[in-house]
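Q: what sequence does this backbone want?
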């Protein structure tokens, strides 16, 4: 059984997500351990094709840190060797390689634009900026991965990323309890709790119980739903009282499940219907109002969605149609499910017609957006998003750097460290450990220290510590002092505290000398591949925009740089 047939991963992203992976072409620049580990984790779930670009020759150093070379690989092109070992892991994945310098490939837009996704491994910031510019010009997502000694990072460069299925961990089902559609209201009206015996009452779905109680509440409160804390508690108290009155035998009451479900889900009767903020942003986007023949399918469907909300939806999104499991008789649950699914189908058909109208107006074939894609879009419309990721160019240019937010992150870490120091003085061991070295071990500090090392390279033509024996303490110290000066100047330019990168950071970065350690590469590769799958499938929400892992203490941080 191939990895691409794995039923678990199909449950994660579905057949359409797997099809997106199977159709993707991934370009890897630099076949060292960090890049190889990243692509390994994409080959296993089944990307369609990988291309590995690297002009290095396999050396003994590669044998020490790269699992995708072997002793008999010595002297062979690293791109060829790594690519061949990678595709052995999944017969469904094809591969190719380019024995070319990375800088040469970065300058070759024709090669880059053939790919669905580019992964740039171990690129210094100037190389990464050039690559980002090419990828951005051709609307190709880029993921930058890097291991620098015990520090690892993953940077997403996608500009605008459109998410059709964000799959939140705690999504609230769209059951319309507070604003029922006619068929649902008819079901609630037909369920007369007052004439039911115990056996019948215990099988009424909690949705209908809540609707009946909400209607009774509104009749006594000028049509208003519970809004204050006291009112909400009173509403739940009424549910509990009815539960206890209708099921007087306390021992048998434990067997009843629908009323406890109603009490637990009572908040669904309180919350007025609202379109989620992220969805509102999509519907109000200029790209929705100004469609062109080149508009992404996402924006065409979003325009149809906006038209539906403004028209037949009466301010509401299309109903998804899914009904969670709940205590109910088979007949009552099927009737409830039928009501939701029928309404969802009606809404989908409205949206499909609108999509085809817009396609016709744009001069595009009606089938250029498949009906099943529209159905999926409607089913997941409460969680669509358009993620806007700041560019690396903005991050590295002081006038556009996100300095205020980063300074806030630094101040939070400083405060936690201060609290830890106070806890230590008071003998609070747990508190002291929680705040210990929060600032000095902050992943952001190490990330900026690595950035300073790139600036050092621009001046010296090498990374700090590179080519210097660890036993040569004088030259190591000289590089560390120079690196600290570069870091201080960089932090000043970015309006960040200059004590964020210290002498200790500079010494450690110099000691690393830019080396790749396999354990760090493996962690970075796992994180990066997870983000790559999100980008390729347009499912789940990817990082925005940088993850930094500090292997010294095993902590990581996510920053919008």
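A:
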């Amino acid at each position: 059984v191939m990895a691409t047939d794995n039923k678990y991963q199909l449950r994660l992203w579905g057949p359409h997500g797997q099809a997106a992976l199977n159709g993707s072409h991934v370009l890897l620049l630099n076949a060292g351990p960090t890049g190889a580990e990243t692509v390994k984790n994409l080959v296993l779930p089944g990307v369609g094709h990988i291309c590995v670009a690297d002009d290095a020759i396999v050396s003994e150093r590669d044998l020490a840190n790269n699992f995708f070379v072997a002793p008999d690989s010595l002297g062979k092109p690293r791109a060829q060797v790594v690519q061949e070992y990678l595709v052995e892991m999944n017969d469904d994945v094809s591969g190719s390689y380019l024995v070319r310098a990375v800088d040469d490939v970065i300058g070759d837009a024709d090669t880059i634009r053939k790919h669905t996704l580019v992964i740039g491994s171990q690129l210094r910031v100037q190389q990464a900026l050039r690559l980002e510019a090419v990828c951005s010009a051709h609307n190709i997502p880029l993921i930058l991965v890097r291991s620098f000694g015990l520090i690892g990072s993953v940077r997403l460069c996608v500009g605008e990323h459109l998410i059709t299925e964000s799959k939140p961990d705690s999504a609230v089902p769209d059951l319309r309890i507070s604003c029922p559609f006619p068929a649902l209201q008819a079901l609630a009206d037909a369920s007369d709790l007052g004439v039911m015996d115990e056996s019948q009452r215990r099988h009424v779905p909690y949705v209908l119980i809540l609707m009946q109680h909400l209607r009774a509440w509104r009749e006594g409160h000028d049509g208003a739903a519970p809004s204050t804390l006291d009112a909400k508690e009173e509403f739940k108290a009424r549910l509990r009282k009815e539960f206890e009155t209708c099921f007087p035998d306390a021992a048998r009451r434990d067997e009843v499940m629908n009323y406890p479900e109603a009490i637990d889900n009572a908040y669904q009767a309180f919350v007025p219907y609202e379109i989620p903020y992220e969805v509102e942003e999509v519907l109000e986007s200029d790209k929705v109002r100004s469609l062109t023949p080149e508009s992404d399918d996402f924006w065409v469907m979003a325009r149809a969605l906006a038209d539906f909300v403004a028209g037949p939806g009466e301010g509401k999104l299309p109903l998804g149609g899914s009904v969670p499991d709940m205590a109910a008789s088979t007949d009552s649950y099927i009737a409830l499910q039928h009501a939701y699914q029928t309404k969802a189908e009606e809404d989908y058909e409205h949206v499909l017609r609108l999509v085809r109208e817009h396609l016709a107006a744009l001069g595009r074939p009606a089938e250029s957006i498949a009906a099943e894609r529209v159905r999926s879009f409607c089913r997941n419309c409460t969680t669509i998003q358009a993620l806007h990721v700041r560019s690396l160019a903005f991050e590295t240019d002081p006038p556009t750097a996100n300095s205020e937010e980063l300074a806030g992150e630094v101040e939070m870490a400083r405060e936690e460290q201060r609290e830890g120091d106070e806890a230590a003085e008071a003998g609070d061991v747990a508190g002291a450990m929680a705040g210990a070295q929060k600032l000095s071990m902050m992943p952001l500090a190490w990330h900026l220290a690595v950035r300073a090392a790139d600036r050092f390279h621009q001046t010296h033509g090498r990374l700090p510590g590179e080519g210097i024996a660890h036993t040569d303490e004088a030259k190591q110290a000289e590089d560390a002092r120079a690196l600290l000066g570069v870091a201080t100047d960089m932090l000043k330019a970015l309006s960040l505290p200059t004590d964020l990168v210290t002498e200790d950071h500079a010494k450690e970065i110099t000691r690393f000398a830019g080396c790749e350690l396999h354990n760090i590469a493996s962690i970075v590769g796992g994180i990066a591949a997870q983000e790559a799958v999100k980008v390729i499938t347009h499912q789940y929400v990817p990082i925005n925009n940088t993850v930094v892992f500090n292997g010294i203490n095993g902590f990581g941080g996510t920053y919008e740089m």
